[in-house]
Amino acid sequence: MSHSRKINVVEAFALSLATMAPTGSMAGNTGPGAKFAGVNLPIAFLIAAVAMLLVAVGFCEMSKHISAAGSVYAYNRASLGENWGFVSGWVMQLGYTVMGVAMCALSGTYASLILKNLGVSVSPMLIGFLLVLLMWFILSHGIKLTSNFSLVTESIALTILIVLSVTVLAKGGGNGGVNLKPFVPTVGASGITQGVVYTVLCFVGFEVACTVATRTKNPKRAIPLALLLTILGGMVIFVFVSYAVVIGFGTNDVAELAKSSAPLNVLAARFISPAMAVLVDFAIFLSTFGAAVCVTNGASYMYYAMGQQGYLPKTLGKFNYSHNAPSHAVHMVCGLDVLLYMLADFTKGNANTYLYYITLGAVCMIAIYMIGCVGSFVFFKKHAEFKHSFLKHDLAPVVGFVVLAFPLLSNFYPVPAFPLNFFPYFVLAWAACGYWMSRHHVKKAHLQKVNDNSNANNNEAAN
């Protein structure tokens, strides 16, 4: 593959940042987070950022030594063995696939709202379906188009988000004015901790650049840098924007923020104009659709890696150099996305499609991050030849694992409503299936090796 057709560190960063979808994440998670963290929502975002930075350190350190398709699949194969490596990739593959469908559904909702404000009525379900097909087209034309598309869409979305936040602060905010109350703990540790359950979800997807390491220039330098830039950039964006949102609704009473299903739109209409609210909808649409493209690209590279290793049909492990994409894997995952979208959206509606699939995806990814922490910890214990750092190789994965246990346990108790209560157990069953597949694959490979050696010895004896 030509070096010029590989992506650079900025484009790798764009893939991860767009997958996090800062604008879309702020639109969807500020309200739920404020129900618990209240005025201290920025602190909840700061704690989530630190926790995810610790998780990211493990990915960064591993990516400095391992540059292969499959992200955590490749990392955990090296640290925890073939079986747990495959389980990691198997669960991540599920998470990426369903999250792509979820983000297309959410994009369809916002596109429908934009058109409605322009006097055009189109079903969000139909728009979401068309977006899945558009995503298929983009991914089919290679990693350069995918990364550049995500860079443009998220840049536009973030510009609108930052303009809104700066305007809110410049105009003095709401009840209570501009002050530092959001950074002074007042709601108690339990409330802030519960808020972290939601704010940590805003960082899901930061690691997607790892899936395209083999298609990146100087991957052992570019991928760690892209991951750190994503987390640190997300930290600045989320803390600043959440501060502006809390100030905009007013620090004396954040009940309105906690109840709001569209806080960014409310602030846009209140501090700028109704037209700005429509522009915010456009920013959220760009952000969520860009995330759909990037996370589905990650899924296609996961299928590609597993095809290369023989777990899935070998045709999925072939790379199309003329299109600069793992074309068979792209067609596989996008075709699956079409089916999953139709299964949910045309039976349960657009809103439920997003809710169900994003929840399932979040459970998968949190579990993967926790396994990744274990893998990082074990890898550097096993490889004494690498320079050891207590902060990076011991403390970071342990603390990251513990912090992530809170949002994972929240999916078990309090027991969510059906079918959300079913998803954690589905992921466990999916992981168990993956473990069985791996054991069977390893056993089959071992028997094949024994037979090959036996045949070679027989041929040598005959000669």
TrEMBL record:
Q: How does it sit in the membrane?
A: Multi-pass membrane protein
Give the signal peptide range. 1-27
Pfam families found in the cross-reference section: AA_permease
Q: Name the keywords, alphabetized.
A: Membrane, Signal, Transmembrane, Transmembrane helix
Q: List where in the cell it is found.
A: Membrane
Q: Where is the Amino acid permease/ SLC12A domain?
A: 15-395
Principal localisation: membrane
Q: Which InterPro entries match?
A: AA-permease/SLC12A_dom, APC_superfamily
Q: Which GO terms describe its molecular function?
A: transmembrane transporter activity
- Gene Ontology annotations for the cellular component aspect, listed alphabetically: plasma membrane
Gene3D superfamilies, per database record: Amino acid/polyamine transporter I
- What residue intervals traverse the membrane? 43-60, 94-115, 121-139, 151-172, 192-213, 225-251, 271-304, 325-344, 356-379, 391-410, 422-438
Name the record gives this protein: APC family permease
- Organism expressing this protein natively: Acetilactobacillus jinshanensis
Lineage of producing organism: Bacteria, Bacillati, Bacillota, Bacilli, Lactobacillales
